[in-house]
């Protein structure tokens, strides 16, 4: 199964931070979702970002690479998305899919190792993103 992962980052004081959220049933996550049949991957990234966060990304996000997850045999395709306005420190978005759950968005320091609240797949994804930005120690 192929998943699009829209990545939103900001440079904030101590370094790069990535947009993350707390899922009320499944812990801390990054935005991601299934790439529909015949859908362009970059369009899937923009669509998923909007569906899960309400954010509208600029067209033509930058492809960061893909990761084949050992845990669940999924292929994740990462796209660096640009948002044209300044985002708040935290906010809650009521996602229309997933039954209307409230997702709590926040900024997570990329140089910080994830704790146990992050599922194994997202820990692997964070390591991939840290490597992309040359933050692996």
From TrEMBL:
Ranges for domain Nudix hydrolase: 1-130
Keywords, alphabetical: Hydrolase
Entries under InterPro entries matching the protein: NUDIX_hydrolase-like_dom_sf, NUDIX_hydrolase_CS, NUDIX_hydrolase_dom
CDD domains listed in its UniProt record: NUDIX_Hydrolase (cd04663)
Cofactor: Mg(2+)
Pfam families the record matches: NUDIX
Matches recorded under SUPFAM superfamilies: Nudix (SSF55811)
Membrane-spanning residues: none
Protein name: NUDIX domain-containing protein
Lineage: Bacteria, Pseudomonadati, Pseudomonadota, Gammaproteobacteria, Moraxellales
């Amino acid at each position: 199964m192929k998943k699009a992962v829209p990545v939103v980052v900001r440079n904030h004081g101590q370094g790069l931070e990535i947009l993350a959220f707390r899922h009320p049933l499944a812990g801390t996550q990054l935005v991601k979702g299934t790439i529909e049949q015949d859908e362009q991957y970059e369009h899937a990234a923009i669509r998923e970002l909007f569906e899960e966060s309400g954010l509208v990304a600029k067209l033509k996000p930058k492809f960061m690479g893909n990761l084949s997850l050992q845990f669940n045999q999924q292929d994740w395709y990462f796209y660096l998305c640009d948002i044209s306005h300044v985002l708040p420190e935290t906010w809650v978005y009521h996602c229309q899919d997933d039954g209307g759950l409230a997702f709590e968005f926040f900024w997570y320091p990329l140089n910080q190792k994830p704790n146990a609240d992050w599922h194994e797949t997202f820990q692997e994804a964070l390591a991939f993103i840290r490597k992309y930005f040359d933050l692996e120690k």
